[in-house]
Amino acid sequence: MYLNTVILTGFLGNDAESHTSRPGTADAFSFVTLSLATKRTWKDRETGERQSVTCWHRCVVINPRIAAFAATLTKGAHVQLTGELQNREYTTKDGSLKSVTEIRVQRLARLDRAPQGAGDDTEVHEEDAA
What we know:
This protein is mainly beta.
């Protein structure tokens, strides 16, 4: 049995960014990227001071329904997402090979309160989008 599941809760560091892969071709598709910050804190045993480290995660939303919801999210939004880790490589314009680890989002929920008068859509699942 294999399992590749990640659950992250944190805050967006930037507004959601919409992109189109392979524009102008028959296999073009849209996706949204999120920059999610998670934080770990602890008390240093030697000094007694509180320490913390922030980790940034690149999250990619491909499912059209979840991507439409994700595209509305702005910097500072408190979200929880479930997805899977994916590693990929690509060649930069200067010819060097880059490796990136990202989370492919399958579920996304906004944890902070929606603005007054906004709809009640605070969570979207891949199953709902089928």
